[in-house]
Records
---
Amino acid sequence: MTEAGPSLKAMRPARSGGGIDLTRLLLEGRAFFALIVIIAVFSFLSPYYFSTANFLTMSSHVAIFGILAVGMLLVILNGGIDLSVGSTLGLSGCVAGFLMQGVTLKLLGVILYPPVWVVALLACALGALVGLINGVLIARFKVPAFVATLGVMYMVRGVALLMTNGLTYNNLGGKPELGNTGFDWLGFNRLFGVPLGVLVLIVIAFLASLMLNRSAFGRWLYASGGNERAAELSGVPVKTVQITVYVLSGICAAIAGLILSSQLTSAGPTAGTSYELTAIAAVVIGGAALTGGRGNIRGTLLGAFVIGFLSDGLVIIGISSYWQTVFTGAVIVLAVLLNAVQYRRRVKKPASTDGQSTSPQLGGKA
């Protein structure tokens, strides 16, 4: 089983005259080539773009989108969608901010200041709970993923607004005398010169890649996304897989929320607005099929870097934020069109020359 789901033989088109199929190469490597073009263009337009310091700064911004995109990829591989990740990001940050301000226990007359690691665990548990609600609605009650996650998105955002009364928690650095310092550690500290947020993204991506390529769950995920009914008949626990991917997506959203709040040292109820669309865009740009069963971590990370480096490049050369939205939307539309072309070519091209087509792997679309 490869990362992308279908077998290599089924993916390999015929070569004309012994040469390389250039169209296939461009389609499958489009995210990488797009990233190279973006770096080259903005390095030419601005002397400040191509520098190690700027790349590290941009990468710390990409880390948030990348972590969200990894969770979104798992959901999309299953043939679903998760519109609630942006709201979950905002709520997890608000919960962290609430806990950092101290929890008043009126009956005991005390104020508790939990340590940062407890705050992080509770925020991740909250993200898992939101994902569990999504998964149960979709897997057990057969609510369409778009409708279920859209409803949960509004509910979670509403809870964040009610919790904060529309205000923002500021100064989340903590106090030494209270024993709750270190919340800004994720946002500002570096290890070997690399921002910790980027290292967290690398660890999450590595673990997700191992899960997809080296575990039974990864095979189940590709199978259920490619053909749910066939996977179920083959003994795959389809409902368990569905619930699990939404739980993992919620945890990824909570981690991204902690990193964002740490970078800003503040947490507001509107944080993460429209981030779910950015995560979906990164997955699509990376070559994943929205119908499920096809996609990989490498492409998703490249898609996140394409969006992040493009947005930051436009800021550096002084392009209006309105035009940034236009350019980002155009990239997303182009990526969807290229996805349609890529997978249409795979369906139309025969997989063998003896007159019989080769059936796709269980991980591909049947």
---
Amino acid sequence: MALENILYKFFITFFATVIFTWFVRKALRDADLTDNPIVSEHRHKAGTPTMGGIAFLFTVLLILSLYFRNEDILIISFIMLTGGVMGLIDDLLGLRVKEYQKVVKNISDSVVPIGLLDLGVGEEARITTDKAKEQVGPLVEEGKLELVAEIPIKYEPSEEVKIIVQLIPGLFLAFTGVITTLGGFELGLLAYPVLMIGVLGSINAVNLIDGMDGLAAGIIAIASAFCCLYGIMFGNTSTGYPFGLLGTMCLGFLVFNRYPASIFMGDTGSFILGTGYAAAVLLTDIPYYGVLALAVPIVSTIISLMHRAHIITLPVEPLHHTLNYKGISEIKIVLSYWLLTVAVCVIGILAKLYIFS
């Protein structure tokens, strides 16, 4: 296909995403389907429309109409739609409030231990653990803590159910039978667990990193652009369409999702980007570089898992919220994560050129 035709379709994808996002944002505002952040530093964002990933669903359907003759795009789009529907269900379940968590502030003149935290003077924290819930009443009565808010916590399925559901897009990808080799190895029956785990990991990495304005969309846009460049530089031109379209979708969404965001993607969007990125990496057979390009979200996920396993302790999970809690501005954190992603991607290309060539 001529270069002008490729650029034409990319422009269509970009502007369509912008239009769909604008429309979905308006519809969500009218329906009052807005976010109520549980992180203290983000409470000013309450009222911002969420579930903006619905716009991605419309864009994917458009891509299907433009690329119905391209097998890779058809498969990736199908997997993204599968992930998007599952993310949408998760978002809809989240409309139900499970509990209200107290947010307290240390109003004493010394550090106050509560739960797993040592709350500094003037600091705020959510009361999440059973131990903290038992301690908060007496500490408020003693005048050491002040109750400043009660945050609604959305209902979520159990971790077991979520994992099983998130394995389905990878299973569907394996059912297509188009991926028989990966990274120079014949997969055989191993294709099923490898693809399922790969998609599962990508979904969770993108979902976890989606906690600040433009963070997830920006990282996937950067990673997709470099995966596309990597493939073109080293003779794998199949990376052009899937990563180019995925990155273009993210750029279109960033028109409204960059700081200060006027819409959030929700689980619908993060599931679509997670499944789409994983499917693109697996179908174009660039697993090593694809994982490297997603290193920032992957490392963040590992740190969160270490926190949950009580190997380390974070005042707020995930890591980018901890950095914000420690006083680093959201803009600096997002830009740092973007620049780190660029740096890792450039290092990967240089390593391929001068070390693994």
---
Amino acid sequence: MREMGPVALRRALCGAGEPPPGASAERIAGCRLRAESLDPAGDLAVAAARGGRFVCPGDLEWPGQLDDLGDARPVGLWVRGRPSLRMWALRSVAVVGARACSDYGAHVAATLGAGLAERGWVVVSGAAHGVDGAAHRGALAADGATIAVLASGVDIPYPRGHAELIERIAEQGLVLAELPPGTHPTRSRFVLRNRVIAALTRGTVVVEAQYRSGSLVTARRALKLGRHTMGVPGPVTSGLSSGVHELLRGEAVLVTDAAEVAELVGGIGELAPARQGPLVERDLLDPVTARVLEALSAQGGSDGREVARDSGTSCEEALSRLYELLALGFVERHGDRWELAPTVRRNDSTRRGDPQIWGNRVKGLRR
């Protein structure tokens, strides 16, 4: 194909031209036998009747990132759907995983699909049961863009149970297939399909996968192609997450939501929100004031000199900070002694069931 080009090679394999150099007579005979059953014009007509078309290298709609596959690049792709494949693929992410996924995996995949769609990303997957279907449905539910890459012809919905889903994707997004119309999937064709998913997108997210999952094939091909490869962690006791965890021990990046995926595969400025625990009132105190508060004894209070000594400040500085804390409601003054206030105001981060807080300490805990 690389040396002769598709037209000359087809003629050679059909007997209308010189056979390719190095091809045995037996191999040529087998190719000619298969060529007798081919009907390119009929395939184009079938695809057109289903609203499809054939896109090949050199067309304006051809996504150039597929050329990274080298000799493994598809000869062309059958496409159903109105959008431009090249434009949609420019900002796309693959979400793949186990067919027999858990409720956790389905929930995460659907949430990722919806979250990425809401951020303007095209969700790409294989339309299979489990994680694939959940990712597609999540994107569709958010009125987003999604692409299904099939291991069959674009007119053969597989799995059969997803016929309605695939039709909806064709209406709202794109359905792709490397094989011509009328072709049914085989085991090897799923593996071949996975390389297209890996090369077409900016990155691949694996939600759930066992050690021998085909989703890991997609992820490892993405790694070889220099694409971002991500994994969503699961319970360490779950075999469905064992493959993902093995991937994360290598070069894959751990992600937990769509914001983190977008930060990794997106451009400058697409940052995930910073992760932090709940904010409590004492977190907003000046460092010196916080030290003075920490120096107060939870068992009966302290005088100003003790507070200054334990906080490493002068007596005047300690007194100034204690009056600040008094104004804020953290402490009380009883004669010459300063004590922690018995309760603190509840803020938005305090939840029912949290331990009771006295001043800056959990009740019952000693210094």
---
Amino acid sequence: MGVDGRLRAVVGLAQAMAAACAPRDSVRAAARGARLAMDGSFAAISAWERERGRLRVLVNEGERRDGEEEFPEDESYPVHDFPEITEFLHERWVGGGGPHAWVDSAVGDRPGRRGEALRRRGRGTCVVAPIVLSGRAWGELYVARDEGMADFDEDDAEFATVLAAVIAAGLAQSDRLEEARRLAFTDPLTGLANRRAVDMRLDEALEEHRRGGAGVVVSLVVCDLNGLKKVNDTLGHAMGDRLLERFGSVLSLCGAILPGALVARLGGDEFCLVSVGPSADEVVRVTEEVCLRAAELELGEGVACGVASTGDPIGPVKSSRRLFRLADAAQYKAKAARSAKPVVAGRDTAVVRLADAEPGGPGERRRFRGRA
């Protein structure tokens, strides 16, 4: 397809999205337009759900394989398995740079699972382009060609970057009402869930725990980012915001290891993770990974993490307030000790005593959430 053909394809894609009557029709028009413009056999559009740490497929268009539905009910993949969207975008954009598409091949040596997925589905090559809304990675455009077709090249990657920008503009128009709903439960800086979403999820989870007993493990991880004030004071609040966004991406990436986990920013330098189902040991292992990755960030001074889980000996948990008090007490102890690893309530019995003591007791300086 020559320059004129590609220009017509871009215009056609934009027009098709503008004519769509519903968000579902809009993403289908985007995927179809991109597939035709790229001479692909298959295209998909996925959204990065930061609070779940998942890439959720919104539409599969073109020659679908077994198990690939046009509008899948819940086809999603942990960003831990496909980490490009979280790992390189922030740094690439520093200094005014922009997102750029990349090419993968079934026979290439690029690390990751995309080549494996191509081989499994009988496809030879793919191009992946980040979709960016309001300066933040929203998701990705994926276009593939079957085995035997010509491989994508760098020119195709450049064109896919343009198509992703056109798709982003179309999504911004069609997504306004849905965005208003999401914002009620989303932290605007990091794109993670907010405190309201955490409260709702914990209430639901603890009710499930009460019905199902010890078999339903509910865990809460509270994280306090170290060194944010120093970054704000010495480098400016823009760099502080960057640190918050980078740590939010780390937490989302690690949280994706735990099925169904909710990742949130509570406010300021405080973050949390809610897990329902996985064992306390699994949650602790993931939290250790969070601590390791946070220590490697180019800004800040790591993170202090506290864990409270019904899978540990912490006594009855009748409300989310008690789980928060336990996790807060553990996090407080981790911060005071400058611990490079999480402190776990129940495994450290002093944490349980601290959480259950009367607020303001002698010799203890701490802060807990006052939610009933």
